[in-house]
Specification:
This protein has a single domain, classed as Nuclear Transport Factor 2, Chain: A (Roll). The relative contact order is 0.20. By secondary structure, it is of the alpha+beta class. The longest helix is centred in the N-terminal third of the chain and has 17 residues. The chain has a five-stranded mixed beta sheet with strand order 1-5-4-3-2. Helix content is 34%, strand content 41%. InterPro entries: Fungal_Meroterpenoid_Isomerase, NTF2-like_dom_sf, SnoaL-like. This is SnoaL-like domain-containing protein.
Length: 138
């Protein structure tokens, strides 16, 4: 398919996260989708759809007013891939939350669903997030 379908699917994923809607997020994933939270130094295992849904549902109640803002987009139509540089903001139990991401989506051949997600996070912000969750008793 053309690049607009590829980008449309990738932006639909971002919109599903902005809606903080697990069903909308999962609906855009291929049945065999794999989600990796990187860098590897964070020690997060790759997750299939079942594992990712359980993970997301465990953090979903901890955040409010979640917003992802895209600052840069790279699209490779031939490889069925989209990359975003993005920032997120929200509120968590311990106060304001913010993080920075490089997100890479590899789509199915028809660009309709996501096969792989590589989510690079700012590891300093992420480590702080886990400390702050502990302060909330989580």
């Amino acid at each position: 398919m053309h690049g607009s379908e590829l980008l449309h699917t990738a932006l639909a994923v971002i919109n599903a996260y902005n809606a903080w809607d697990v069903d909308a997020i999962m609906a855009l994933r291929a049945p065999d989708c794999i989600h990796r939270v990187l860098p590897e130094s964070l020690g997060q295992p790759a997750m299939n759809n079942t594992e990712y849904r359980a993970y997301f549902e465990s953090i979903q109640p901890l955040f409010e007013n979640w917003t992802i803002t895209i600052t840069n987009t790279i699209e490779d139509q031939g490889a069925h891939k989209v990359g975003f540089h993005a920032n997120s903001t929200g509120t968590m139990c311990a106060g304001p939350y913010a993080n920075e991401y490089a997100l890479f989506f590899h789509m199915t051949d028809d660009d309709a669903l996501v096969l792989e997600i590589d989510e690079f996070v700012d590891s300093d912000h992420t480590k702080d997030y886990f400390v702050r969750l502990g302060e909330c008793g989580v």
